[in-house]
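Before relying on records like the one below, remember that each one covers exactly one chain. Contacts with other chains, cofactors or solvent are not represented anywhere in the record.
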Amino acid sequence: MVHPVITSEGDEVFVTEHCAFRYHERVCLDAHITAARGDLRRRISEEGIIQLARPDWLPPIQTGSRTRYQDLHTNIGYLLLGDDLALPLTETTSGQLVARTVLRRGFTR
C-alpha cells in the first residue's frame, strides 16, 4: 500500500499500487505511472467523496457471474471522483479504508 490520502471530506483512504496502476491504465494512459499516481492522489484530496450506495452507472452484480474482484472483496462503499470514476472501498480489520481498483464509466475491459 502507498501512503494514505485524505479525501475532500476529511476521510483517510489507503490506495493500493494496483489501484494506482488501474487509474494509469484507465484514465491517464499517456502519463508516466508516477504522474498518474500523483494525479490520483490530487483528485482524491480535491474531489473524493465516499458514498455507501453503488453508483447507478455500474452494471448490477448478478449472482453466479460475479467477477473475481467481487468474489474476493466485500465493498463497504465507493470513493467517487467526479461522475465517471468509482474506487470500490474495503475495510481492514483495523478499520482502515482501502481503495483496491478503479472503475470507469463505459470502460468494458
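Residues 4-104 form a domain with the YaeB-like fold fold (CATH 3.30.2310).
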